[in-house]
Amino acid sequence: MPTHNTSSVFNSDPELLAIGVLYVILTVVVFPAYALLIHALHSRGDLKENISYKLLNLLNYCDVSQSFCHFLTGIFLIFPVVAEKAQFFVRIIGCTANTLWLATFVIMAILASTRIGIAFFKIKATKWSVWMIISLVIGSIYIFTVWIVGCITQNFELTGPNWAYDMKVKYADLFASLELVLCFPTLALSFISYILIIYSIYKKRRISRSSSSSFRTEVGILVQATILTTYMALLITFWHNAESWFKMTNYTLASLNCVWILFSHLNFILLVSTNKGVRNQILRPFCSKNRSRQTSKLVPLSHVSSTMPVEK
After folding, report:
1. Is the pLDDT of residue 3 over 60?
2. How many angstroms separate the CA atoms of 214 and 190, rounded?
3. Which option is the CATH number for 9-282: 3.30.1330.20, 1.20.1070.10, 3.60.40.10, 2.60.40.10?
């Protein structure tokens, strides 16, 4: 009977094999964590009509979808025969992961503007304004264009353990530059919106002399804003300057990709650790004690631009 060499199925490069296994492990833990998070947020009926909540959930879905793409990246590294025989599909996965990453910035910009509008211009938290719809349409067209052009031209490739633009493809350098034009202004807008919202909370508290918006909540908003925006800014900076700053080895490239993968972990940890309402909602199914059915007050829902308490 013919014998099959099972070792040939796996990557013969031990470094890439180990990195592939690491990617799979890091991404697998995301799925149950975000399943609990998304279920917890969906179970809060008082937030289903809230615009900020809907945008926040879009960001969560982007995180999960990116993690799935990174999971497939690990599979491609463990079983290189898959990448060799389906290179067109592999590049589509890379383009999809990158497009989902860019989509988070588009949603962040709209979310930041929405929070400012609610805090200062009395925009209803449950009503879509015309400018919001127009912004979503323009952002969606941009994201879809980036994705469809990337899929057709195959401008994103898996180089060793890392994803990168294939500069041999026409217009790839243009799309790489557009990322910087999109990302850094969005991060600046998001952080400024945090500062303005914190100022609004502080001002309202002084006028009403109420303790409902506590100093602890304000600090939580600022901490989340600082950590997440700094993390994203550093990731983008390193990603676009890695070849100039570091020696390009498999471990260097894997480190860059792991920083990208771990963003969803960081967002989940900050969201749960600084939001008692969300934390209680997630832990509720696991608690054996009988608790009151009354929903606890939701404190800041966070994802770069959404750490302001959601109005009802």
Report:
1. no
2. 22
3. 1.20.1070.10
